[in-house]
């Protein structure tokens, strides 16, 4: 059966590969005439006017403002720069790092049906109908991005409503958060899903039929066509272009599959891997298959490494799969879905830690966060040293549990744009009593923990500028709500920037390699159209990346 992206011509992939052909080897270089700005390790703003880069693509030094870079003369022939780039007074700053994303999924989303811009069920139906009409050769219609909250539907959509758009072939559409899928009757029939089937562990089959939540999606994924190597290559190239265009030079890829890893290796082998990937295997089996008995060494000049394992404790708030201590305010009979028993979670975390893998656990609800915190408390007695346990999302934390984040050196890997997208829904799901621990970035820092910021792309756009602005304002692109939502949890502008640079690299054990512009670090920088420190929040959101450089070489340029 043809895969969901088989219609993309091989010539398109080949053209993209040629466009990303390996660059010439770097040489001693001077990036000159810049309005440079970065943070030092104390999160203080540092300004500079030039960067000296060595042949390995690492920063030798930042030339301070007012100091003239030494130029060779007859009496003093050194230092000699084999080449010089004149940035013509433009703003240069460190490349941004996304601490939580899904690279291949981003590419697949970009190359398939995207419903994220639909505001009503009727709009979604019309877009699905038109997509199916324009792609008659596809045996399955695959897409993502729907959100019943955005539609103001007040419930999940049904198979019958999807049948109204496409009745003649299977349709399977992932919700915006990836924690639920919407199927039409043809897809449900192909998967054998009926009202007689009981909910699987960690999953829920919504009634009337149509939506499968969390682990129930596995019923459909058994029959959905698999994505082949050619389509994964196309997806990777699409995702890489998107990331570089936002100024993202490194990403923590959460839930890397064996097929994903092989795609990254193929790209690295032909010199087409530009963005740096800190990979976290999707579960124990995938992680061990990729890395064996421990994290891999860095490959391709610090562009790829398997760092750890990604596990799931619960689902998502939007699909009511986040595991809560008390029932949902808008669904009193539901508390969400805990995916693992305490013993199984601890066993899997122990299995990973035993081989030196870093452990990152998805936990959104306060009950799931408590389960992971308890597991870390138990395992910390055995696994000493710098473990950097990660909790991914940590969207709802019981204030009574906050101190544990600092006690065990936990990294809160959080996504600022989730707060601005979710706030109205979160108020409905949680009620006022639990908002004190919702998206609580400042409290995580105050507890003594570390923050790493990302976007969870493609759930949100991989836009660090929107994330940066949201983190220190708690307001969305329209400036809502005035003064910020739960403004006591806003961080400073510098803390937010650090979350997308030094904090994100630290979260992946990469702080000795990249993340800031400083001697010995990889020369990953971007050229932008404004000074981010002086910009208003609205201006910061409108930042345009003009060039993206990785390892002292230009990797992307806006056309």
The residue ranges in which pLDDT falls below 50 over 5 or more consecutive positions are 1-26
Proportion of residues in β-strands:
15-25%
Helix/strand-derived class? alpha/beta
N-C termini distance:
38 Å
Described by the principal axes of the CA atoms, the overall outline is: globular
What strand line-up does the widest sheet have? 5-12-13-14-15-16-17-18
Helicity, in percent? 25-40%
Characterize the biggest β-sheet. 8 strands, parallel
Indicate the mean pLDDT: 93
In terms of topology, how is this protein built?
Layout: H1 10-19, E1 29-39, E2 45-53, E3 59-64, E4 83-94, E5 96-101, H2 103-110, E6 113-114, H3 121-134, E7 141-146, H4 159-163, E8 171-175, E9 180-183, H5 185-191, E10 203-205, E11 211-214, H6 218-221, H7 229-245, E12 248-256, H8 258-269, E13 276-282, H9 284-291, E14 304-312, H10 342-354, E15 358-363, H11 366-379, E16 390-393, H12 403-407, E17 411-414, H13 416-430, H14 441-446, E18 450-453, H15 464-473, H16 493-499, H17 502-507, E19 525-528, H18 537-541, E20 545-550, E21 553-557
Parallel strand pairs: 1-4, 5-12, 6-7, 7-8, 12-13, 13-14, 14-15, 15-16, 16-17, 17-18
Antiparallel strand pairs: 1-2, 2-3, 4-19, 8-9, 9-11, 10-11, 19-20, 20-21
Helix pairs in contact: 1-7, 2-7, 7-8, 10-11, 13-15, 15-16
Report on this structure:
Helix 12 links the parallel strand 16 and strand 17. The chain has 18 helices and 21 strands. With 559 residues, the protein is an alpha/beta fold. It has an eight-stranded parallel beta sheet. Strands 3-2-1-4-19-20-21 form a seven-stranded mixed beta sheet. It is 30% helix and 23% strand. Helix 1 crosses helix 7 and helix 10 (342-354) packs across helix 11 (366-379).
